[in-house]
Amino acid sequence: MRWYARPEGDFARLNLAPQLDSWDWGDNRGQVQLGKFLDEADTLLAASRIDGPWALRLDVGLAPHLDLLGKRDLDNYAKPLASRLSDGGLVSVWCTKRSSGHSAVRIEAAREVPAPSTGVLHATTTKSWDGPAAKEQIRSALVDIPELPDGPVRLELAFTVGPSRNWLNLWKPTIDALGALLGHEQPFRPWNPRDGRITELGMHLDIDPSLRYGVLIGIAARPVVAAPAEAR
């Protein structure tokens, strides 16, 4: 599996606030706002698009009165933008959130780096992702893993998939299965982790032509000792 550095170069400041993924009808207010945000981000990044493997970063600025660690899951901010921009070269997606007056977006050529030094957990799925079977396999791989201390979390997920797999569709189910690491919002709901406390999220792609239905996942999670840096 491959791991990539978080983009740290020039950014474009967004005029419109990033919007969470919406499953409402197309004329719903949430869908309309999401569409406007995606249009703006797409336009701002058009001149910096890259041939070859590239990485995307979205920094979400939240109003100070909003709970930084409650809800507003980063994968739900990142996926619609990644889906809009993905062209086959997208191999790494990063998303952060912080209390800030602005949000920003950027893309860079992907820079491969070693696996996180804090240790990587591994899970393998061989079953369907259409229901809970694949999530059960991920959860089983974390049975004896202690829960992270309370507070913000940095999470990286490295996916190795076959050529026909849309890896963007694996993000949410994988995070839903990480209750052992993140804790549970409600213990009786197995796929409801405290993923709102993820303030830094990085997701990486590697393609293995020999894989058909199997998915290999590297999981690296640690407490965040300081808030993500403001985009400068």
Blueprint (SSEs and pairs):
Elements: E1 3-4, E2 12-14, H1 29-45, E3 54-62, H2 74-85, E4 90-99, E5 103-109, E6 112-113, E7 121-125, H3 133-141, E8 153-161, H4 171-176, H5 179-182, E9 198-207, E10 215-223
Parallel strand pairs: 3-4, 8-9
Antiparallel strand pairs: 1-6, 2-5, 3-5, 4-9, 7-10, 8-10
Task: Give a structural overview.
About 20% of the residues lie in helices and about 30% in strands. It contains five helices and ten strands, in the order E-E-H-E-H-E-E-E-E-H-E-H-H-E-E.
Cα distance spanning the termini:
31 Å
Record the strand order, biggest sheet.
2-5-3-4-9-8-10-7
DSSP strand tally? 10
Biggest sheet details: 8 strands, mixed
List keywords for this structure.
globular, single chain, two-stranded antiparallel sheet
Summarize the structure.
With 232 residues, the chain is of the alpha+beta class. It has helices at residues 29-45, 74-85, 133-141, 171-176, 179-182, and strands at residues 3-4, 12-14, 54-62, 90-99, 103-109, 112-113, 121-125, 153-161, 198-207, 215-223.
